[in-house]
Amino acid sequence: MHIVITGGAGFLGARLARTLLARGRLSLAGAPERDIERITLADRVAPPADLAADARIASAVGDLNDQLRGDGAAFWREADAVFHLAAAVSGECEADFDLGMRSNFAATHGLLETLRALGTRPVLVFSSSLAVFGDSPEQPLPALIDDHTLPTPQTSYGIQKFIGEQLVADYTRRGFVQGRSVRLMTVSVRPGQPNGAASGFFSGMIREPLAGLRAACPVPDETPVAIASPARTIEGIVRAAEAGNADWGARTALNLPSLATTVGEMAAALERVAGRAATDLLDRTPDATIGRIVKTWPGRFDTPRARALGLVADERFDDVIRAYVRESPDAVKLVIRA
Amino acid sequence: MHIVITGGAGFLGARLARTLLARGRLSLAGAPERDIERITLADRVAPPADLAADARIASAVGDLNDQLRGDGAAFWREADAVFHLAAAVSGECEADFDLGMRSNFAATHGLLETLRALGTRPVLVFSSSLAVFGDSPEQPLPALIDDHTLPTPQTSYGIQKFIGEQLVADYTRRGFVQGRSVRLMTVSVRPGQPNGAASGFFSGMIREPLAGLRAACPVPDETPVAIASPARTIEGIVRAAEAGNADWGARTALNLPSLATTVGEMAAALERVAGRAATDLLDRTPDATIGRIVKTWPGRFDTPRARALGLVADERFDDVIRAYVRESPDAVKLVIRA
Q: In whole numbers, what is the pLDDT of chain A averaged over residues?
């Protein structure tokens, strides 16, 4: 089995690749498991060293739109499954409209057209986002989002993801691909460097203090957030690829499970895990740009469809922090409480 | 004031142009009324003779995607309002995927990009469709569609229209245009020739018998349908252009009002208006292709948002037929009952 991961050198892409390599086998859309022979990581940068060292990993470094043009990229033809994670993130798309339209709108359409032209009908998992839901004075979101809630995106990123979902649904209905769209929740704790996502501080406010660094907490404590750990997020992405058609059901995007919490509760969890030494490093400096985006996102979901697929949310954010500490020991300088 | 109507030589486009010419003045987004100096009808064919004879009408004959490329089309720059009605219709888009993606997806995106590049911020009314709602076994529609119902399109046409709505919403939020999307109901009775719309028979089953011609009635009598007369439809489109921002409210597309009826009730109305001589001309021959599309569409709407804008549905289909008879006397051969 050949797999392509767009955005494959990014945090989620690389973690997905490691998960798949560790398993060694995968079922696609309910078919029997098969060995994973190759995973191509398509990204603008080279993959992390551990992945590059694995014989089953191939790297395709370049711009996704370029890789979709012409006839250069043989890996599309061989792909039994494509995980489409590449995207410009929310803050970037709000700051640079053309970047988002190119990286999210045009690239997703281009990927679907490339796969359709090949006629290979691969499984395609598209990573959408809770950002398709946007609260506004003219159209307030319900307090609890469920599987039937109408998305009314309030960011260009959310619109672009929602359009991607629609394209994936129709290319699937027409039989061009076997598409499944999953709406990722706010992923925390992400390791590594901050990116341009407006949600970036939801990781930074944990990661940086644990590393002994000051971190911004740019929105009020009571700001609600629907969190999923990296592990739960990858679980959802893999389940989307594996589920049989009958189990998967509707072509509408699936809301992945999330832990409903708040910025204040996250800070309290950080203090329980790493003490005042950690929370003393939080700078509660409001950022209007980030606040404007984040406050439109919903914080509370009911996800019966995901539950029926066996997907569950993280139970306690303390455990999410502890998992990060276990997985990123080199990035943690503070003393962790037992 | 300069106005552009894409699809301006089509039935709805021409009727809209006649309505605007008769009024002579228009308010845009709540601003004071101004005189209409020019209406450019952009279409692949020339406008009807009555419109071509009006000094205020300009005609731009060509493919919309071509008219959006390059720097040839000065009418975009001068437009205070654009009514974007041009589209490939449902049956065509299902039969020819590329045609729909070019005529609906690419053209709507191209129009928005053209207007954005000009920086003129015109009012843009986008004609979407009830076809964004699609019933399926995996995701049944509710019995009553309201302003918060999640669209789950089951046709390529519905997907393309729904994507158009999202683009219009974001280009509006960003301030590139002043967009308003209206979801048209099934328009009946359309005069003239049948087109490639799966919904075409909803007009043909009335229009052809009235002309003394046999007509297909390709779906069961109990098939529900949400009907709007041409007059009510144009009313909704004009109201969308005129409404002030506060009245218009959310950037989500507006469901226009409709009369909930069935194919059987429409035939009964035809018989009341024109007798058995009319209904004897109906051929009840099932058409699986049309049936597959039409059965996914909803028949019953509650439209409080449209009501608040003063928009109402037709009350009786008999009156809709009689209005058609009045407006198209040359196309009616049967004797009409008083």
A: 96
pLDDT of A142 over the 80 cut: yes
Q: Which residues of A are catalytic?
A: 157
CA distance B144 to chain A (A): 14
**Complex confidence, ipTM:** 0.96
Cβ A21 vs Cβ A39: under 8 Å: yes
Q: A166-208, pLDDT tens digit by residue?
A: 999 999 999 999 999 999 999 999 998 888 788 999 999 999 9
Q: CATH number of B198-224+259-300+314-331: 3.90.25.10, 3.40.50.2000, 3.30.360.10, 3.40.50.300?
A: 3.90.25.10
DSSP-based helix, strand, coil % in chain B, nearest 5: 45, 15, 40
CB B286 within 8 A of CB B219: yes
pTM of the predicted structure, to 2 decimals = 0.96
What residue spans in chain B does CATH classification 3.40.50.720 cover? 2-185+229-255
Q: Which fold has domain A2-185+229-255?
A: Rossmann fold (3.40.50)
Which chain B residue has the Cα nearest residue A117?
B98
Averaged pLDDT, A275-301: 94
Q: For residue A175, what is the DSSP state?
A: T
Per-residue pLDDT band for B71 (boundaries 50, 70, 90) equals low
Domain with CATH 3.90.25.10 in chain B: 198-224+259-300+314-331
Numbered residues of chain A with Cβ closer than 8 Å to any chain B Cβ: 97, 136, 138-139, 148-154, 156, 159, 162-163, 166-167, 169-170, 173-174, 249-252
What count of residues does chain B have?
Answer: 338
Find, among B50, B56, B68, the residue nearest to B14 by Cα: B50
Q: Which of A15, A19, A60 is nearest to A36 (CA)?
A: A19
